[in-house]
Design a protein that fits this description.
The complex is a heterotrimer. Chain A is α/β, with parallel strands linked by helices. Chain A is built from nine helices and ten strands. The radius of gyration of chain A is 17 Å and the shape is globular. The relative contact order of chain A is 0.18. By secondary structure, chain B is mainly alpha-helical. Helices cover 72% and strands 4% of the residues of chain B. In chain B, β2 and β3 form a beta hairpin. The N terminus and C terminus of chain B are likely disordered. Chain C has one domain. Chain C has twelve helices and four strands, in the order αααααβββααααβααα. The chains are: A alpha/beta, B mainly alpha, C mainly alpha. At the B-C interface, α1, α2, α8, α14 and α16 of B face α2, α4, α5, β1 and α10 of C.
């Protein structure tokens, strides 16, 4: 494992208004990993990702991406650096066609000629999107929207992909398929992935390391396998 | 210090310079192709001076050196606050009331004139506050009710010699009816659709006033409206009563002060009544309010009607004071002025609106010498005020955030 | 019948102009939910820049020799100027208020409108400025119907601008980014699209269209005035709302309807009340469809 983490949070506190949703979160993600962060509703998982991306204002602490500080950067400067997020609730553009949604993922890129190739690559991963490429994003089903959201993020050629609850509201079979694809992206394209999930079981199975977040504080961090065996985790998050 | 944020002011300054550079040629070129910058120079010197002053203020505000200035100010503020705690609100009330009662004895005609103007606008601002501040419906045609009130009294006075006092409730009634007429079709509309429809209604009222020659005498207006009168006992030839027209300025001042106090009390009571709370519920979330059993239909109409009543009262007084009405007085810019007072002062806050009305009436008066540039400065000041105090001078205290701010 | 056709042509001309102005309102509203009260002033500034440029060209004699080139050049210059002006106004008066309540931004816009209007009045004078009359001669007659060359110029220019805008918004990358920003600003910024830049571009496009409309109105009515922005401004705003605010096709349709209603109303009912008809139609339509003709339910062309 290389020593330089691709993403590092040092004692990050943030939140809306006077309430801090995060109270000093520290974590590291190394290149090539899949790292997961699990936690209950309202633990601050989404806030963590939104703080990394500069949407939620940071109040204290530091965030380093590739060894450089990114806290306080404008959100739109991060995607060109290779840091892209698939946010909670997918947030596809409902009144844009599927292919236009994908094109937006590559908006900042200058190499237009490679874009066709990348779009074909996304269609290879998600063949259903190819069938629907002329449809409006809002007319897709939940699973298709999730695929579109991931595909759109892939269009920006990310080195670090932040995934927020990709399993939310989807049928188990589709969840399985989505996680297979997440693995494939990690494996084939060497994309580092930080995965936030409420579904601790599937998240820990696919990740190499895991963090457990509770009310804005990291209470535990270990190898994913160890966390899966941990009786406390099994009791609190795996329903035993 | 968060990286990135320190450039904001630099960027803003660049944008400002960009705007000024762009405006320069437009303001200096004449249609025949000649350039005369001499006139515009004075405008620009003014603008540059004001901007420089603001910039200094901002810098002083942001830099740590300002602490020497800020510290005494903070101490003074604290002392005032402590004084405010020692002296109960009632003492302040008495102070304000006595000053406003004594005002005509301490000042000249001109100041009284301005004061009357301020008080009229306070009534209007508080009326509009019911619609915009409490019920959360953006109304850009509020001045129409002012017009309805003014024309009601004007016509009653000219054709039927109604007295001012009798006409007041009638004018309020008519304005309330107008409010319902405007309110009814707009009940289903949301924020900005409402804005243009109310603006349209305001324009319709003005155009009708302008064109219905038989009734309103069109753009020439109505002349010879009676001033308010009073039955006073008089003793010169035996004991009897005499009807006296109160044309003197200080009488008018007291009348409008009375109106104003009535408005303040009424709005204050409304604010803290069940109805007021229902209005606030509608403002925060219409659907939830309806689910909680608030009758949206009736309450929204009521908000329009109540807002219109105070506009109508102010209008009737305006007609009685000027003794002349014409459609000129009821243009969109007046609606904008009243709205500006409400937002500038602080929506939903009665002292804020009073302060807003004072600021918007008195400040332009202070700059009478530069008459021509008044509106220019007024527009710029409005923008600048919003940049510095987007919530108004005295923001209303309220629990939680407003739904529109969350959307932000 | 002939009167009706004549009125229809006049209505189309006026409606097209309203549509051009309405597009600026609707695009800005679609993207940041702001009623840009200063938009009418961009229209007036465009009209003034047109008169300044054309008068200058007349004084140099170029207009006689190359009328089309001069007209086209002035149009493009005025559009570019107003685009830059709108971007500056946005940066100065609206951008710092992006997270403030919407009423504060509205008031800031109103302040800007008053500022620009009075700036125009102070420096350009309170009187009408006449446009060079070179384009107002000549017309084609079909029986009793007269179509002036000027009307044809305006109609052609309007239609081509509308087509160009449609291509820009629905076919180009920047247009798609504009629509994406209108739909979800947080998401576009996560994808590396700067919403500030997109908003600037939106203001610029809207103001450029308004400037073109300003020149057309100047040519059509023969003169411009410092306060000419107000009434067409609110009518165009009404048109945008009528069509369903935020909807591009809606704004075009709304503009045409308002223009036609105004002309028919003036022609068949009463000229004095022509401004009233537009608002009555607006209120009537909104009563039955509170979100406008093309609003929210038929939402393909919302920006």
């Amino acid at each position: 494992m290389p020593n330089q983490p691709i993403l590092e949070l040092k004692n990050v506190s943030s939140g809306y208004g006077s309430i801090d949703a995060l109270k000093g979160v520290s974590l590291k993600v190394f290149p090539g990993e899949i790292v997961t962060m699990i936690g209950a509703n309202g633990a601050g998982k989404t806030t963590t990702l939104m703080t990394i991306c500069g949407i939620v204002p940071i109040k204290a602490g530091e965030i380093y991406y590739d060894g450089k500080p990114i806290h306080g950067c404008e959100p739109d400067t991060l995607a060109p650096k290779g840091l892209c997020q698939v946010p909670e609730g997918r947030r596809i553009f409902p009144r844009l066609k599927v292919e236009d949604n994908l094109e937006m993922g590559a908006f900042f890129r200058k190499d237009r000629q490679n874009m066709e190739k990348d779009m074909d690559h996304v269609f290879d991963l998600f063949p259903v999107l190819k069938e629907r490429r002329k449809q409006l994003g809002g007319t897709l089903s939940g699973g298709e929207q999730q695929m579109l959201a991931i595909g759109r993020a892939l269009m920006s050629k990310p080195r670090l992909l932040l995934l927020d609850e990709p399993s939310l509201g989807l049928a188990p079979l589709i969840v399985k398929r989505i996680f297979e694809i997440i693995h494939e992206i990690n494996h084939r394209e060497k994309t580092t992935i930080l995965l936030v999930e409420q579904n601790a079981n599937i998240a820990l199975q696919s990740a190499s390391r895991g963090y457990v977040l509770e009310t804005g504080i990291i209470i535990m961090s270990d190898d994913a396998g160890a966390l899966l065996q941990n009786p406390k985790i099994r009791k609190a998050y795996l329903g035993e | 210090m968060i990286p990135g944020s320190k450039h904001i002011w630099k960027k803003y300054a660049i944008a400002m310079i960009w705007l000024l550079v762009l405006l320069w040629p437009l303001l200096g070129i004449h249609a025949d192709g000649t350039l005369t910058f001499s006139e515009t120079w004075s405008v620009w010197i003014w603008i540059a001076g004001v901007l420089l002053g603001l910039l200094m203020l901002v810098l002083a505000h942001r830099s740590s050196t300002s602490r020497m200035v800020r510290a005494p100010v903070a101490i003074a503020m604290e002392k005032i606050n402590r004084l405010g705690k020692v002296m109960p609100g009632k003492v302040w009330m008495v102070l304000i009331i006595s000053v406003s009662l004594l005002f005509p004895f301490l000042t000249d005609r001109y100041a009284q004139d301005v004061a009357i103007n301020v008080l009229v606008y306070v009534c209007l601002g508080l009326g509009l506050n019911i619609v915009v501040g409490l019920a959360g419906m953006l109304d850009l045609g509020y001045i129409a009710f002012y017009g309805v009130g003014a024309y009601t009294y004007a016509l009653l006075s000219i054709h039927y010699q109604f007295s001012f006092w009798l006409s007041l409730p009638i004018a309020a009634c008519f304005a309330a009816i107008a409010g319902c007429i405007i309110g009814y079709p707009t009940l289903r509309m949301r924020g900005d659709y409402l804005a243009i429809v109310t603006l349209g209604f305001g324009e319709i009222v003005r155009i009708i006033l302008n064109n219905w020659m038989e009734l309103t005498n069109g753009p020439n207006g109505i002349l010879g409206i009676n001033a308010p009168g009073l039955m006073l006992p008089q003793f010169s030839n035996g004991i009897g009563f005499e009807y006296i027209y109160l044309k003197k300025l200080h009488y008018l001042y007291y009348i409008v002060l009375l109106l104003c106090v009535f408005t303040v009390i009424a709005v204050h009571r409304l604010n803290f009544s069940r109805i007021g709370r229902a209005w606030e519920a509608i403002r925060e979330d219409e659907t939830v309010a309806e689910l909680m059993g608030v009758n949206i239909f009736r309450l929204k109409l009521l908000a329009y009607a109540m807002g219109a009543v105070f506009g109508g009262l102010a209008g009737a007084f305006f007609a009685a004071r000027m003794r002349f009405v014409s459609p000129e007085s009821f243009t969109f810019i007046e609606s904008a002025m009243v709205l500006a007072m409400v937002v500038l002062g602080g929506m939903g806050s009665i002292p804020g609106i009073i302060l807003g009305a004072m600021a918007l009436i008195v400040l332009p008066e202070l700059f009478r010498e530069v008459e021509l540039y008044r509106m220019l400065a007024f527009g710029a000041a409005m923008t600048v005020m919003m940049l510095f105090r987007p919530k108004g001078l005295i923001p209303a205290k309220r629990v939680g955030t407003r739904s529109e701010e969350r959307e932000g | 019948m002939e009167f009706f056709i004549q009125q229809t042509i006049n209505g189309l001309t006026l409606g097209g102009i309203y549509a051009l102005i309405a597009l600026g309102y609707t695009m800005v509203y679609g993207i940041i939910q702001l009623i840009n009260f200063a938009h009418g002033e961009f229209f007036a500034a465009g009209g003034y820049l047109g008169v300044i440029l054309l008068s200058f060209l007349v004084s140099r004699g170029y207009l006689e020799t190359h009328p089309w080139l001069c007209l086209g050049g002035s149009l493009v210059l005025a559009m570019a100027y107003c685009a830059a002006l709108a971007m500056a106004v946005e940066k100065v008066a609206y951008k710092p208020l992006r997270f403030a309540s919407r009423l504060s931004v509205l008031l800031s816009a109103l302040g800007m409108s008053i500022f620009l209007q009075n700036g125009l009045m102070l420096t350009q004078g309170v009187y009408d400025k006449p446009y060079p009359s070179i384009f107002s001669h000549g017309n084609i007659e079909f029986g009793n119907i007269t179509v002036s060359y000027l009307q044809i110029i305006i109609l052609v220019a309007t239609v081509s601008l509308l087509v160009l805008l449609n291509i820009l918004v629905f076919k180009t990358r920047i247009g798609k980014a504009m629509r994406a920003t209108a739909q979800d600003k947080v998401m576009t910024s996560l994808l590396g699209i700067s919403s500030n830049r997109i908003i600037s571009i939106t203001f610029a496009i809207g103001a450029a269209l308004a400037a073109a409309a300003g020149i057309m109105v100047g040519l059509y009515y023969g003169s411009v005035r410092y306060d000419m922005g107000f009434v067409p401004g609110i009518k165009a705003f009404a048109a945008a709302v009528l069509g369903g605010i935020g909807n591009i096709t809606g704004a075009m349709l709304g503009g045409l309807i308002i223009g036609m209603v105004e002309i028919y109303g003036a022609g068949y009912i009463s000229g004095q009340y022509k401004d009233v008809f537009a608002f009555i139609i607006l209120i009537g339509v909104l009563y039955f469809r509170p979100t406008g003709i093309m609003g929210e339910n038929i939402d393909d062309t919302r920006i």
